[in-house]
Every structure is written in structure tokens, then in C-alpha cells.
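Subject: sequence -> C-alpha cells, single chain

Hey, anyone have a minute? Need the predicted structure for the following. Not urgent.
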Amino acid sequence: MISFIPNFIDTMLPLMVFCTYVYFGNKITMSQIVICETMIRRFNSSISQIGYRHNSWKELSISLQKIHTFYASFETQKGVV
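Reply:
Had a minute. Here:
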């Protein structure tokens, strides 16, 4: 669902930032472009990790539920566990 966001940020955000900067009457230097691109890339990598962390959290939750079910289950045969 959110997989398009990093690609959108990667392509559109630099364009929007530079167009807005120039629209307000400022001049862009090469160093400003490099710094802005670096900051956008870092922001983009943080955004792309959200999906990964969400999937990891879901897997951890499922694993902990299974462990809880195992330990909280009624033991019908003593010595099995």
C-alpha cells in the first residue's frame, strides 16, 4: 500500500523543493542542490524503512502469540512439554 511513497518522494520532492525555492526569487547554487538532494535521500530511506519495520512488527506479534498460546495451553499429557 505504501510502496509507492518512496518512489514518489524520490522523483517529485526535489522538483517541488527547487521549483518553490526559485519561485520565491532565490538562486540555486550547486552546493545547495547537493545538500538538498542528500537530505531528501536520507528522508526517503527513512520513509522506505517504515514498511519493513511494520512487517517485522507483525511477524514478531504473531510469534509472540504462538509462544503465549503454547505456554498458556492446558497440558493434557504431563511430560510432553
